[in-house]
Amino acid sequence: MKHTVALVGNPNSGKTTLFNQLTGSKQHVGNWPGVTIEKKVGQFTYEEHEITLVDLPGIYSMSPYSIEEVVSRDYIMDEHPDLLINIVDGTNLERNLYLSMQLKELGLPMVIAVNMMDELQQKEIELNIAQLSKELNTPVVPISARNGEGMNELVHSLLHNTNSSTYIYDVQTENILSRIQTLVEETRHDHTHDKFYAFKLLENDELIKKNLNFNETQLNELHSIQRDFCVLKNQKDIDMAVADTRYMEIERIVSHSLCRPCIAQMKSGSDRIDSLLTHKYLGIPMFFVILFVIFMITFGPLGSTLQGFLETGIEMFGEWSTVSLLGLGASDWAINLVTTVIGGVGSVISFMPQIMLLFLFLSLLEDSGYMSRAAFLMDRLLRKIGLNGKAFIPMLMGFGCTVPAVMATRVLENEKDRKMTMLLTPFMSCGARLPVYALFAGVFFPTSAGIAIFSMYVLGIVVAIICGLILRKTVFKGDGSTFILELPPYRFPSFKNTMMHMWEKAKGFLTKAGTIIFSMTVLLWFLTNFSFTLQMVEDPSMSILGNIGQAIAWIFTPLGFGNWQSVISLLSGFIAKESVVSSMAVVYGVGTNAGLETVLSQVFTHASAISFMVFTLLYSPCMAAVATVKSESGSWKFTLQSILFQTGVAYIVAFIAFNLLRIFI
């Protein structure tokens, strides 16, 4: 038997972790709002049941105040899933049950999964599951998604409790809802979700009102009912009256089901840590100190040693391949092609240890709950450029990959904020640019590579702030939107989730190395070995790529790297930033990373090397990111403007950096 199950819950309730536990899906698990933007689908089987599980965006209510809430509500209302799993955070039951009450009003078969049961036990909080189930008239299952506890019980309960029921409020509220349901029945022939519609009309939901298309008489009757309800609840505002009704019920339910003997101790742990990490003056410096330590570990002795081992292995493989091909009597061009591909792809793969270390540390920060604090801290800074802390979420994701970062701008309700964040997010250095920094820093700043690379990341943030100030006073005039962010409690990161996240990022990098970079390396080999007449040439400067590069190299002379090889490498970066290093290996005709380092030390100066790193940091992101900007903005004009804007900024900053540094270095 087949079932479609929707997984619904608040942000930070462990929803995505539960999704991964049930489906085995390798989706990133974070600990800050906005990580799941679109619905995710996974499949699993239980006994003879085939279950399709839909992971909906994390939401706080069924009111369409944000894009996430619209996506979730539309799916539940329009797609009609067979069953619902509502996951709630047991350590924050009151807030989570607000959504549960709204889901109950839909009258769909539902099971409530109370997560974080292990944390409740640690804090000596007693939750009476049977009483909670009785109060809600819904099956309730205790789980620990992080540890995988209670999974079988949850699925069994879900499949064997398919009865639907709505929540019964007090008599006065039920009478009010009954009066509105009479109005709804006059318009709707389908009577599913009638109670939900009634409650939404009571709280003046504009989308529902528009959907039902009430006439003037019906609207007047609705307004009369709303006034009566406000009088009953002793409230002037209908929204407050409805919220107060739900929270009074939640208060009663929790008081009957939950016993907290140590509230003060429960809150003190996170509070003590936050007193330092979110301090008004020390918070931001602490954030940068944490990042600095991460970069020093990643690109210091540990990262460099691991890279050296892998680099040696790749070089040995290249030498073995050459000897093997010579033994097989392969032609010179075939040997040259193979060694070029190994050198090009290998030059990128050799940085895998450092990339994996960086992703490991960032994953630990996310899963511990610290990144929500970072967004809170950056709110003060971002407000100065007219954005809010919520914009820090896509910007932070930009340190991993610009594509999901641009997609994450959907968490911003204001259109101006979204477009401005799309323009600024690519300045956050994505992981694909890391091999370029690591290569140049290793050659020109071997004793302080970590500091050099950390400086690139800081420069990206500084440039984003300066550009934001300029854009807010010119193109995007107006006030920014308000920012409300939940700070989840600090948690020890799950080893499984952390490793899963790191591997997913590493796998994505390796996939690019095996596909895009491999293809680019082969293409560049052809373009650097053949002329426009398709004749093989010995001098790369006479090749197709050499001629193209020489024609435009003069543009980059003021930046200190006006040689065609560097220019071609940057152009290949528009396809994929990872291919910049492999392209350099190809156009300079070297088969090993050591050989490339030797060439670069002869071609670049310290000033021009920094200029190249700065330009790589700031110029237009890869083709996939540009396509995402087009998809999210819906405008080719804006997309082209973003390419020109980012590349223009890169040129100006690199020009300033080169001409200042060559005076002092």
From TrEMBL:
It is a multi-pass membrane protein. The chain crosses the membrane at residues 281-300, 345-365, 391-412, 451-471, 509-528, 603-626, 638-661. GTP binds at residues 9-16, 34-38, 55-58, 115-118. The keyword Mitochondrion does not apply. It holds the Pfam family FeoB_N. Keywords: Cell inner membrane, Cell membrane, GTP-binding, Ion transport, Iron, Iron transport, Magnesium, Membrane, Metal-binding, Nucleotide-binding, Transmembrane, Transmembrane helix, Transport. It comes from the Bacteria. InterPro entries: Fe2_transport_prot-B, Fe2_transport_prot_B_C, FeoB_Cyto, FeoB_GTPase, G_FEOB_dom, Gate_dom, GTP-bd, P-loop_NTPase. GO terms for cellular component: plasma membrane. One of its GO terms (molecular function) is metal ion binding. Mg(2+) binds at residues 20, 23-24. Residues 2-164 form the FeoB-type G domain. It is found in: Cell inner membrane; Cell membrane. PANTHER family: FE(2+) TRANSPORTER FEOB (PTHR43185:SF1), FERROUS IRON TRANSPORT PROTEIN B (PTHR43185). Probable transporter of a GTP-driven Fe(2+) uptake system. Belongs to the TRAFAC class TrmE-Era-EngA-EngB-Septin-like GTPase superfamily. FeoB GTPase (TC 9.A.8) family. This is Ferrous iron transport protein B. It comes from Anaerorhabdus furcosa.
